């Protein structure tokens, strides 16, 4: 996973990983969520990838548009 830059230093996101049709996000409490094309929609995933690379706005976007749209992960 890659460190999230958090240019404003106000995000709960600390790490992220992207793939062709997903983004995995780790928050400061250690929780990880997998958002996929099928769980959140390709439009939201692509927006989240751009925000992750920019290092700003990802946490707010998730809260506004994709909060409950993660894919359940097996442990």
Any key phrases for this structure?
single chain, alpha+beta, 4 strands
Record the SSE blueprint:
Elements (H helix, E strand, L loop, with lengths): L1 E2 L9 E7 L2 E6 L4 E5 H4 L1 H13 L3 H9 L9
Antiparallel strand pairs: 1-2, 2-3, 3-4
Helix pairs in contact: 2-3
Structural class comes to: alpha+beta
Number of helices: 3
H/E series, N to C? Answer: EEEEHHH
Q: How many domains, in number, for the residues? A: 1
Protein name: KTSC domain-containing protein
Organism: Mangrovimicrobium sediminis
What does this structure look like?
With 75 residues, the chain is of the alpha+beta class. It has one domain (2-74). It contains three helices and four strands. It has helices at residues 37-40, 42-54, 58-66; strands at residues 2-3, 13-19, 22-27, 32-36. The model has no long low-confidence stretch (mean pLDDT 95).
Short summary:
With 75 residues, the chain is α+β, with helices and mostly antiparallel strands.
């Amino acid at each position: 996973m890659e460190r999230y830059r958090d240019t404003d230093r106000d995000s709960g996101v600390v790490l992220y990983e992207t793939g062709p049709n997903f983004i995995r996000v780790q928050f400061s409490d250690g929780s990880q969520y997998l958002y996929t094309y099928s769980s959140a929609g390709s439009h939201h995933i692509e927006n989240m990838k751009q925000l992750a690379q920019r290092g700003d706005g990802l946490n707010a976007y998730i809260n506004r548009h994709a909060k409950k749209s993660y894919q359940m992960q097996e442990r």
